Amino acid sequence: MEVVGECASAEEAFVKMPRLYPNIVLMDAQMPGMSGIEAVRGLRRSDLDYGCAVIILAESADHRDETLRTGATDFLVKEIPQLKLIRTIRRVYQTNLGEMKGPNLGEVAVDLIVSPPNDKAQLLRFVCLLEDRLKSIHHTALVARMAGSFQRGAVITVLLESDALASLSETLEKMPEVQKVEERLEEDALSTLPS
Question: Which end of the chain lies in a sparser environment, N or C, as judged by fewer CB atoms within 10 Å?
């Protein structure tokens, strides 16, 4: 998953889309100028339809049905947890853009058991290093959650494509902070997370 651009308004998005050609657009329903609903209508015009899926984010679910009728692919309330947003983006991608996906987008979750950090800053530095390393090796892998304590250590859950598991596991096991790498099915690994 990669962010290819950001826009402050629908008008700016219309200008940038031919160059960026995104698969999925996350659009705020209450943008300055043209609203998200108007923007979706504009995108669905034959001369502007780039075949992208559009997920509208709004403060409340008041205009959900109207938004979906205009051609938006999905509708979410802004206060959505990050993991649910990631899952929605992946579901929309696989459902609506399946012909564009690679041979294996099956997800697995890997728990990294890390040594107890000296302080919060040390743990955050490690997570930043981990995210940079994940991006450099396999850009679709991402840190999904962290849990633990300063006394017993932390568990960092990483989501990645199953075809990247072997190469990433070996790399992760070589990191000095990582005591153990455990693979789990995504549903098992993330079932305790709030949705």
Answer: C
